[in-house]
Amino acid sequence: MELPCRLTFCEAQAYVDIQFWQRLRHLKLSEWKLDDQVVPIHGTFRTDISANACISDCSMVCFSQDAFDNSEMYHSTTPGSSFVTVRFPGLLKNFNVLPQLLDLDTKLSLIGVLCSELLIPLFFTEYVSHHEEEEAWRVANYTPFGMFTYVDAKSYLFYHREAFPSFALNSPIKISSSHTGGENSYMCERITGEILEHGRILLLEKPYSCNPFIFVVSEREHVTFHAFTPGNYSKLKDEGRNPVVCFFNFSPVPTSASWAARNIILCMRLALPSMTSFSFLALRPGGVASTWYVECTCEPLDALALAAALNTLRNSCSNSVFNSDIQPPADDLALLRPTGWRKKGVAVVDLSAMMDPALRADSDSRLNLELMRWRVLPSLELSSLAECKVLLLGMGTLGCNVSRNLLMWGVRHLTAVDRSVVSFSNLARQSLFSVSDASARRPKVEAAADALRAIIPTVDVRHMVMTVHMPGHRTDSAKEAETREDIERLIQLMREHDVVFLLTDSSEARWLPTIIAAAHGIPIINVALGFHQYVVMRHGVVSPSSAIDAGPLGPEGPSHVSHSSMGCYFCSSVVGPLDSVSGRALDEQCTVTRPGVSSIASAIAVELLAQIYQHPSRFRCPAYRGEHNGEATQGICCLGAIPQQIRGDVYRYGVSFYCAERSPYCTACSEPILLAYQNLGVDFLFRCINDPSIIEEISGVKALREQCSTELIDMELITSSESESF
Which of 177, 651, 699, 709 would you call most buried, defined as having the most Cβ atoms within 10 angstroms of its Cβ? Predict the structure, then answer.
C-alpha cells in the first residue's frame, strides 16, 4: 500500500454535556465561591473492545456532571462485559472575572497543563524504586487536557476554552513501513492475538488513557511483555531484541494515531533524544484484523538544547502550573512548541433558553443568598434553613409579608392556615391577593398558596381552611365534634412543623397555639401590631422533661435552661384571654395600624428565624441581653444578636430588646396550665374555649388579682389612717 510520508495524529475532541455546566455553576456558587484554584476533573468515553466491535468516534472525550468526582474507586466495566469506560484526567481553572479568561496566555497555559500532567510525574520527579517509575509511566495521563472557564451565574452564560496539549518538535516522524492486520514482517497473527489480549487486560484493570507497554517477539515466536519506560526500551534495544511499543489506539481513522499516541511517542523522544527509529503496534476495537503495525524513523534531537529547555520548564512550573511569573525563552519554545487548542478564541454556551423556568426561578432566587457567603459572610448556613418547615397561622397582612420574606431566605416548605376569604379591603395591604381573588371571595390560604407558587413554582406550600378557636368564642353542642376535630388537626399540624408563626389579628387567637406549643416543645415566633408599635418575640420552649414531647429544637447545651425560662406572649398579662372582637365598633374589630408597620415587623420576624438557624443551639439558644465591656456574652450568631423580644415603633423610630422571664401565673405556659392539658388533653382546651374563667382559675391569675386587690385596699386603709392621725 502507498504510505504517507509523515505519521499523522487524529486530534482529540471534546463534548461537554449540559449537566456539566449546571454542576460547574453549582460548585462555583456553593463551594468554590472566590477560590480560583486549579481543580482536577476528568472526561470519559465508552467503547467496545471485543473482536466484533466496530470503531466509532472514540476520540470524542465526554464531560458530564460526574467529571468533578475524582474518586479512586472507579468502575470501568461490569463483569462479563466487553465495554470499557476510559477515563482521561485533566485540569480545570475557573476564573472570577471574564477578562482573565479573555487575556489568557495561550502558550503558558498549555505548558502549565503539560508540566502538571506529564513533565512533573515523568521527568521532574525522582523515584526511589524502579517499580515506582514503571507504574508512573504506565498510568501516566497521555491525553492531558486543560479547561479554562468563566461562569456568568446570573445569566447562565458559560465562557470556555479547551485544549489537549502536546509539544510540537522540529523533527517530524516518518513512516518507513506499515501493516494492518495480524500478519506483518515482525509477528504472526497468533502473536498479535496474544498481545491484543494482554492490552485488553491492562485496559480493564486501569482504564486510564491507553496503557502503553513494550513487547518483544523472540525468534521462536514467543512474546514477552515489559513495562513502558525509556529505561526498559533502551535496555532492550541495546540487547538487540527489537522492542515494540504497544498501546490502544482510539483514533477513528485506521491509518492515523490517536492524540494519546502522539504524547507517548513525544515522551519517548524527550527521554531518548538520540533515538532515530522505533516501531509501535496500535491496538484497536475490532480484534486482530484492526491492529496497525508501524515502523518509523526520525531525526535525533539536540540533547543539550533539549536539556536546557526542560530545565527552564522545570523552573517555570515549580511554583504554580498556571500562574508562573517565569516566561520560557523564545529558543525553548521554538524547540518545544506547545500546541493543542481545540478552537481559536473563547466560546460561549448560553443555557438560559434551555432552563425550565420553574427550576430557574428557584435557583436564581437563591443567588443573592449564595453571594452573601462569598465574601461578606462565609460561615452563613443556608441548607438547614431551606429545609425548615414553617406553619403560618393567619394569612392576613402579616401572613402575606412573612411568607414573602421566607421565600427570600430560601425557605421552601410552608403551610398556611386561615378561615377568612379575600375582601376588597385587603388588596392594598395584603400583597399576595388580587382583585380577581376578592371578586371570587376565594379563601385567603388558597389564593396565597397560588400566589406563592406563581413567584417560586417549586415551593412546597400547603393550605388549610380552618378555624383557630379562641377562648370566649363559645361553640354550641351542635358544633362540638367539629371544634374538637379542628383542635386535634391544629395539634397535629404544629407537631409536623419546625416552627410556628403566630400572625393572627386578635390576642385570644394566639392562646390555643401557645399552649399547644408549650406542651409539645414547638418553637413559636409571635408578631403583634399596634398603631405605631410592633412586637416580635420568640417563645421560650419548655424543657422536654416537663413537656409532652420535644420538638426540632437543635442540640442541647448550656443555653438550654436559659432558653426554657423565657416567657411567652401571655406571660406579661394579668388577665385571661377573652373575646375582644364581639360587640366592638368597626375600628376595634380591625387591626388599625400604620401601613408600613406590618412590613417592618414581618421582616424582623423572618430575620430572627434566620439568625436562630445560625446558632448551634437553634431554638434553644439563649436570649441576647446586651453587651458587657463592649462584647455580647450570649445570644449572638454570625448574623448578629438573637434577642427574645424586639419592640419598636415608628413614632420615634426606636427599637429595644427585652427578655421576659416565664411567669408562674401565665395563662398559657405556666405549669398548672400545662399539667391540666397533659392530664385532660382536648377536653381541657374545649372547656377553656367555652369558659375562659377556667384559665384564670387554674393558672392562679384570679387568686393573684384578688390578693393584689386585698393588699391595695389594706394599703389605702393604712394611708387613710395615717392621714387622719396627722
Answer: 699
Give dist(CA 567, CA 551) in Å, integer. Answer: 17
Residues 6+ apart with CB under 8 A from 473: 508, 579, 582, 689
CA distance 366 to 547: 37
* C-beta of residue 505 within 8 angstroms of C-beta of residue 398: no
Q: Cα dihedral angle (268, 67, 56, 78), rounded to 10 degrees?
A: 100
CATH topology of domain 173-302: Cytidine Deaminase; domain 2 (3.40.140)
Q: Give pLDDT tens digits for 212-267.
A: 888 888 776 789 999 999 999 999 999 988 899 998 888 878 788 889 899 999 99
DSSP state of 54: P
Q: Where in the chain are all domains bearing CATH 3.40.140.100?
A: 173-302
pLDDT of residue 719: 53
Task: Say which of 210, 571, 590, 638 is annotated catalytic.
Answer: 590
**CATH topology for the 480-726 domain:** Rossmann fold (3.40.50)
Query: What does pTM read for this prediction?
Result: 0.82
Task: Give the pLDDT confidence of 608-640 residue by residue, as tens digits.
Answer: 999 999 999 999 999 988 776 555 668 899 999
> Domain 380-466 belongs to what topology?
Rossmann fold (3.40.50)
Query: Could you say which DSSP state residue 663 is in?
Result: P
Topology given in CATH for the domain delimited by 9-167+305-347: Cytidine Deaminase; domain 2 (3.40.140)
pLDDT digit string, tens, across residues 252-271: 787 888 898 999 999 999 99
Alpha helices by DSSP H, listed for 218-337, are 230-238, 259-271, 303-316, 330-335
